[in-house]
Specification:
two-stranded antiparallel sheet, 3 helices, mainly alpha, 2 strands, single chain, 71 residues
Length: 71
């Protein structure tokens, strides 16, 4: 049995939700539309907002230095 780990975003689908699976992922698993697959869901900790806030603080603190180095 083949295994593949991918990260996908849950999307709204009517009143429910869906997790899209790309055809290339299905091909690697030798599965096709209509095949039965086992899915294990794990929430991924997304640090995007925290990273953006940190970058903004750094940019504000070192604005002059970044401007001088950017020349």
């Amino acid at each position: 049995m083949a295994e593949k780990t991918v990260i996908r975003t849950i999307k709204r689908f009517g009143n429910g939700a869906m997790v899209p699976i790309h055809r290339s992922d299905l091909a690697e698993l030798e599965a096709d539309i209509g095949s039965t697959v086992q899915v294990t869901l794990t929430k991924v900790d997304n640090n995007y907002e925290a990273t953006r806030a940190s970058a903004k603080r750094m940019r504000n603190r070192f604005a002059r230095t970044l401007e001088l180095l950017g020349r």
